[in-house]
Amino acid sequence: MKIAVIGGGPGGLYFGALMKQLDAAHEVTVWERNAASDTFGFGVVFSDETLGGIGNADPVIAEYMSRRFARWSDIDIHFRGAMHTVGGQGFAAMSRKELLELLQRRSIELGVDVRFSTVAPPVEELMAQYDLVLAADGLNSSVRAKFPESFKPSLDPRASKYMWLGTDQVFEAFKFFVKETDAGTMQIHGYPYSDEGSTFIVEMHEDVWRAAGFDESENEVFPPGVSDMKSVAKVKEIFADELAGFDVLTNNSKWINFTTVRNQHWRHENIVLLGDAAHTAHFSIGSGTKLAMEDSLALAACLHEHNSVEAALEAYETERRPVVESTQRAAQASLEWFENIGQYKDQDPVQFCFNLLTRSRRITYDNLKLRDTEFATKVDEDFARLNGSDVVAPAMFQPHKIGELELVNRVVVSPMDMYSAVDGVPGDFHLVHLGSKAMGGAGLVMTEMVCVSDIGRITPGCTGLYTDEQGAAWKRITQYVHGNSQAKIGAQIGHSGRKGSTKLMWEGLDEPLEEGNWEVLAPSALPYGEGCHVPVEITRAQMDEVREQFVAAAKRADEAGFDLLEVHAAHGYLLSSFLSPLSNQRTDEYGGSLENRLRYPLEVLDAVRAAWPAHKPLGARISATDWAEGGNTEDDALEIAKAFIAHGIDSIDVSSGQIVRNERPAFGRSYQTPFADKIRNQVAAAAGVTVIAVGAISSYDDVNSILLAGRADLVALGRTHLYNPQWTLQAAAEQEYVGAGATWPLPFKAGRRKPPSARTDAVRPRLSLLQEAEVDEQVHLRWTPARDQEPEAIASNA
């Protein structure tokens, strides 16, 4: 093959070296606009997984890298005057300059034609003259910009500012310095990369950056290689204690807004994007160099394994994209956590440390426990202390109060529409459904959305609380739950609005009824989506009528024996559709600004609060984002939450979306938890209001991790409980928890131990005379090179 590589960074050079090793006959030419000695940055961090791949692909490079690595396993978190150390993590880092020099030498000795200080020819020429054109030209890729219709790039500049610096202080571990200043919260990401220095990245939200006066150089243009020394001087002043007399090192150091790069496609004819040109991931998760070198290895392998460039590039993208997207999801969660770090400034230090460690969802409680059992135990003890409990137990089995209502644990069965009622009356199906979930150990069981009128139903199969017969049927269910379990039971009441008069879910989700349909109401005469009903714009008189229907439903819920009531103001139903600008385009006092859009939902909430007993908690469910352009955002959700709290709610159930049919949600594990986190830590916790997290949460490890990090007070699971009604009790058994938070019904108690299911579960005889010695894995490994750490000694030696 004849290969052109645009960009002589680690990704491009490593790819060239690998291709020449696979077949020396390949002609590989690399163009690099900078000189060979132009190296920006300080340290590069690698995972053990990546190092294993490098070792398999090129032992020469791997062996040299291993001799230059700084290795450690500890993370030190400095927060509110204390340092907490967490071990068992495993890091390896080296100087970016040394890595680049190594890759340059290796490429050239293998016969790669590397042309430094040379701009590549026009890409059209390269496409015509070479079999493959590799665009490894970085974040601001000119090749990507040349073919936007093919690559379909998405560039997302973020809200925080950061500057890449170094220090001659050699850290012993990965360091997070989180510092509260007069301007706001700032943080340092620091780690050693050799026996001579450490990376020292300073980061803060742009609002903090401006408040601190760093924007003084905002309009100043710094040539390549020139650093913003005014800002560096200010950084040295602010972080003087952390630097402990050591110096700050610069290398093309200036303020940057991190940009997340995504591309729908990485290929255009015989061009392929690699590294930052194709994708970026925030530095708090891993290095771009690591990702680029992994790309290079995968691409070289696919080219070697396939008979055509087209087939190889297709295989490369198929193989590599899921890995990259997984990394980007974790990186997105991490960068958003750091953008919002100020909301945790008052958190308990141990909880803050756990929160930081689990920010990307790649590390969970169970994972941390395997790495550092001592710190995991400290987290459990701290959570019990914070919640006034004398018993150390898994977080999910710590009790919790919503207002005056006491729950034995923090697991909630999420509201799930069953579409199985007749004329709104719940029957034996609902008794078994909710009764089994209550007996399965959850602390709180929620009904599906119980509709406040016949035309407020979603489908003909939805339940209601608008007749006495329905109220009596619900009373039968609450009595069963109270008589046969420790669970409390809550009713969620709502009105379908424009999403009503539709088929049962399994007959056609959100599809209008063909027979027996009814008129649907909405704030504006706008359909939910293509093919849906055009609703009637609700009048003031109808608004009054619906409000009184909510009040009547609340009174029946109390008479039926429900312990908690939740008003459904999410998912595009009537109250939710008033809140969103996508569904509410009224021109009267109920439309326009968010304040106006809140007006009617708050009227309903006030009326329900007045009708619902004061000693029983009242909650609300909201959609924290509409997942659609022009709709509500998480910042709007904060204002909605503030308003609801001011009007007397005791809990807020934080969901998202389902406002419009053409939404584009970012699905993923625990994907809605960050919204609950933001509302809890910026609004609800200070008001004593319970926050419930929902959305693709399915393991007890995730439940515990969310609670321990302080992202929510309760966790609601839906489909997980459909799969296993006794999920909570089984989670207790698997965690070997025995206590008040998970009490087995007496007839079920014999089943609290998992029965043997195969020969592999049998007890094995001892067949060896001597036991194998246990491997003593070192939890805490520090980087301690043989070098005097005193700054004065370094100066005299120099």
Describe the structure.
The chain has two domains: 1-338, FAD/NAD(P)-binding domain, CATH 3.50.50.60; 392-749, TIM Barrel (Alpha-Beta Barrel). With 798 residues, it is of the alpha/beta class. Helix 2 (48-57) packs parallel to helix 11 (288-305), helix 3 runs antiparallel to helix 4 (96-109) and helix 11 (288-305) packs antiparallel against helix 12 (309-339). Strand 20 (411-413), helix 16 and strand 21 form a beta-alpha-beta unit. It is built from 27 helices and 29 strands.
CATH topology of the largest domain, anyone?
TIM Barrel
Distance between the termini: 50 Å
> Which structural category do the helix and sheet elements fall into?
alpha/beta
Low-confidence stretches: 791-798
Number of helices: 27
What is the CATH class designation of the largest domain?
A: Alpha Beta
Global shape: globular
Count of folded domains = 2
How many strand elements?
29
* CATH homolog superfamily of the largest domain: Aldolase class I
Instruction: Give the rounded overall mean pLDDT.
Output: 93
Task: Describe the protein's topology.
Layout: E1 2-6, H1 10-22, E2 27-31, E3 43-46, H2 48-57, H3 59-68, E4 70-72, E5 75-79, E6 82-86, E7 91-95, H4 96-109, E8 113-115, H5 123-129, E9 132-135, H6 142-146, H7 148-151, E10 153-167, E11 174-181, E12 184-192, E13 198-205, H8 206-211, H9 229-238, H10 240-243, E14 248-249, E15 256-263, E16 267-268, E17 271-273, H11 288-305, H12 309-339, H13 349-357, H14 365-371, H15 373-386, E18 400-402, E19 405-407, E20 411-413, H16 428-439, E21 444-451, H17 468-484, E22 488-494, H18 505-508, E23 521-522, E24 536-537, H19 540-559, E25 564-569, H20 574-579, H21 594-611, E26 618-623, H22 634-646, E27 651-655, H23 673-687, E28 690-693, H24 700-708, E29 714-717, H25 719-723, H26 727-734, H27 791-797
